[in-house]
């Protein structure tokens, strides 16, 4: 997606959520967030709790690519990561629109980048995601979720944001990260299609399978 398309998507999503989405039930939304953040999870529909958590999983998936990418950009990713914690995809899209395609990495990985690059991080996200899906499908009130999706701005917007995270992942950020790790996209074959197209589990599979980023080989990369 080019920059203009990303900016239009960003503006369109904001306009839709503010003016066209169902009304905001502020008191109920605040109570929902209080219940989630204070661990009163028995008071929350498991579908909504899982959806809220999976948006966080998406942010961690993007972070595992974009904190490396931000090292090589004129802008850093961390302000947008902070904005994304509060606003989800609204805080993320401006970074995607402002960044330049870059398939290199220089300098040493600090402890934080090593953690994002670790198999422990990737496997933990995957196991957590599987648990959230199982929890939602077994215990969730899906009729209640559909009603809230149709009637509540917060649930409606969060659901659409989840879908946008999926749609935005197979952009140049994925190809750049593949090349940054000296992993030839052509040799990946059907695995690449699974990573790019399978909702949520494709990106998680990528984190579990991608080669570690070694500073010694940081300047060498494949052109996609």
Q: Domain count, please report it.
A: 1
- Put simply, the count of helices is 13
- Report the major sheet: none
Distance N to C terminus: 16 Å
Task: Report the mean per-residue pLDDT as an integer.
Answer: 93
Q: Name the poorly predicted regions.
A: 216-224
Rg, Å, rounded: 18 Å
The helix-and-strand class reads mainly alpha
How does the overall form come out from the CA principal axes? globular
Strand content: under 5%
Count the strands?
A: 0
The secondary-structure element order is: HHHHHHHHHHHHH
Helical content (DSSP H or I, runs of 4+): over 70%
Structural commentary:
With 224 residues, this protein is mainly alpha-helical. It has one domain (3-105, 113-217). Helix content is 71%, strand content 0%. The protein is built from 13 helices and no strands. The protein has helices at 3-20, 26-37, 46-71, 78-87, 89-98, 111-116, 119-139, 142-151, 153-168, 172-180, 185-188, 190-197, 201-209. The longest helix is centred in the first third of the chain and has 26 residues, at 46-71. The chain is globular, with a radius of gyration of 18 Å.
